[in-house]
Amino acid sequence: QSALTQPASVSGSPGQSITISCTGTISDVGVYNYVSWYQQHPGKAPKLMIYEVSNRPSGVSNRFSGSKSGNTASLTISGLQAEDEADYYCSSYTSSSTVLFGGGTKLTVL
Amino acid sequence: EVQLVQSGAEVKKPGESLKISCKGSGYSFTSYWIGWVRQMPGKGLEWMGSIYPGDSDTRYSPSFQGQVTISADKSISTAYLQWSSLKASDTAMYYCARQLGYGVLDAFDIWGQGTMVTVSS
Questions:
Q1: Is residue B103 over pLDDT 80?
Q2: Which residues in chain A are contacts of B107 at CB distance < 8 A?
């Protein structure tokens, strides 16, 4: 099983919006709505930001949103802030009853 | 407060065995999957496997099947990850995390603080 495909890096200026893509296959992202997104700051444990494609856990800013089209899921961060600078990972449940993560995307706030 | 507390950092030699732990509190431990996630130095997240403490149903990533064993003791709300013979390539941070979902492995909503395992001769 190959990892889900994410861009290695994205960047944006404060106040702008950015989108991170996560491409899978018809065996994972394309067939299940069990896609989630995680934020990880250096030296910290990951934090759940979006679950089941577009749901935000309590306490997560509404600047974070998720969507899916076909085999590709996306995380959008609007009104970019310096504190959003981190690594972001997507994950999906698969038809093999396993979990796949994406390779991770480094977000730089310029 | 819902939390997962992991055992402390370990330094081991190649060939040695190791069992690290993850203790849950503040929720019904038997009602949620617990997953284990590896993060090698400077690298991304990799799912290793998950266990449902309620009935010990366990699923492994093909990449880790046969390399590690995941178990749980529901009487003390603790999940374990163990190796019988460590390799230098096992050097990594290991996270446990609670998973949503019952019949499916959904998102990891609560994470432990991580256990750093260093394997070096």
A1: no
A2: 34, 36, 48, 51-52, 91
